[in-house]
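For consistency, the fold was encoded as tokens, as this record shows:
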Amino acid sequence: MNAIVETDIQDYMRELGRAARQAGRAMSRAESGAKNAALEHIAARIEQHAEAIAEANARDMKAGRDNGLDAALLDRLELTPERIQAMADGLRQIVALPDPVGAIRDLNYRPSGIQLGKMRVPLGVIGIIYESRPNVTADAAALCLKSGNAAILRGGSEAIHSNRAIAEHIRAGLEQAGLPGEAVQVVATTDRAAVGELITMNDYVDVIVPRGGKGLIERISRDATVAVIKHLDGICHVYVDDKADLGKAAAIAFNAKTQRYGTCNTMETLLVHEAVAAELLPSLAERYRDVGVELRGCERTRAIVEMNAASDEDWATEYLAPILSIRLVADLDEAMEHIERYSSRHTESIVTEDYSRARRFLREVDSSSVMVNASTRFADGFEYGLGAEIGISTDKLHARGPVGLEGLTTEKYVVLGDGHVRN
């Protein structure tokens, strides 16, 4: 498929689009039982064929190492046995969630006698463009399927073998449940021209969800004529207040940085109140160094612990790597000013025992997830009970934060009458 010439790519993508539009109509009227059965079949097939999926992933991992992919991208690419099982578990968690499609809310009588409410309905056809993580293939397919949408998935070239292996079982599971296999289609070519086609196919695609690096998302946001649900960087902060329990603070700050390095909800900047820095930072810095985290600090931080100097660019960088910037601040206001200036509006956390400060932080920090006394690593669809997520939106319109089933639907007004006519 990689040998497709440019004119053929346009035809190929439109063929996918037509099939997706037709499958989307079938999915919009599919019963919950059929959708749940498909998810169960897909989960079972992933478990039964875990070894074959791992073999396909091993081919991608070898190619990635040969092509010089960095450690963070290789971490995102790898499908360990635990991650393959997590895909199946995520599918089953989505089965257990209520189906949002068809739910009617706020049904009330108007003065005219009609009843007016809002019904939740699928978006239609969702194009998802993502890099590195092949587990997104299963997560995205499951969420689109349960929410009554069709999906066109375009994964990164570095994960092509893994994505194809997973897609084979998604299609088979859909067909086992009597649903159209074309409801989830993986773009078979790695040619980048396919992305340009997908994001401009307004006749066939209703929304685009890009998942990947800043360059990819900026390009999609700039060039797409289809609506985009996006987030850019994951520049996440933890602020340790002078009213913090320092035992909690150390555990949260360590977990938020080191639990996984290559994720968008990993802490990239630690803000510490100057009154507790001398007590907290020496032992915490030693823990970071023990696991290979490079520390970059402001001048006042470096007066307490020896580390590299942080630049203005560091405060605005999503490392996705074992690197952490640390800054001392005078108070909560200075911490929130720093977050306002440098945050990507993804996830921020305060560690404090002061209720009033916690409330201020929750109210005033303008990010898609804001936390008190918890690691930023919890900002995740699975942890939020969404089963999985299509992505984490830092936009403010339509969907914000982890986008699960409800974020993949919209609402329409419904009117119930009994022969009513307008006077």
